[in-house]
Design goal:
By secondary structure, this protein is an alpha+beta fold. The protein is built from three helices and four strands, in the order H-E-H-E-E-E-H. It has helices spanning about 10-15, 35-45, 85-95, and strands at about 25-30, 50-55, 70-75, 80-85. It has a four-stranded mixed sheet. Helix 2 (about 35-45) runs parallel beside helix 3. The radius of gyration is 16 Å and the shape is globular.
């Protein structure tokens, strides 16, 4: 079973040291099966991941979004941006989120 940690308050967050942003060489685009396999290997055993999604905007009234289209997973040292149009990228994200 996973240990749960309470969400810190705004005051507690304000006391934290600033996060050093990742540089471009620390960000990997994942858009095919080979890159997805490499990302899975690199992320194997990570105990905590940052998570974000992006979807293409919709412009017409009542138009449904087909997203998310991109998922970003990151550690403190590196980030991977998965383009979900590729089936292996979708599968890799699913494995990691399980």
């Amino acid at each position: 079973m996973h240990e749960r940690h309470p969400t810190p308050s705004k005051e507690e967050i304000a006391l934290l040291a600033p996060f050093q942003r990742l540089t471009l060489d620390q960000i990997t685009l994942v858009s095919n099966a080979f890159q997805a396999a490499q990302a899975l290997e690199a992320l194997d055993g990570a105990t905590a991941l940052g998570f974000d999604t992006e979807s293409k905007p919709t412009f017409a009234k009542n138009e449904a979004s087909t997203g998310p289209h991109i998922v970003q997973l990151s550690t403190l040292q590196k980030a991977w941006i998965f383009q979900l149009e590729d089936a292996e990228c979708r599968r890799a994200v699913g494995v990691l989120l399980e």
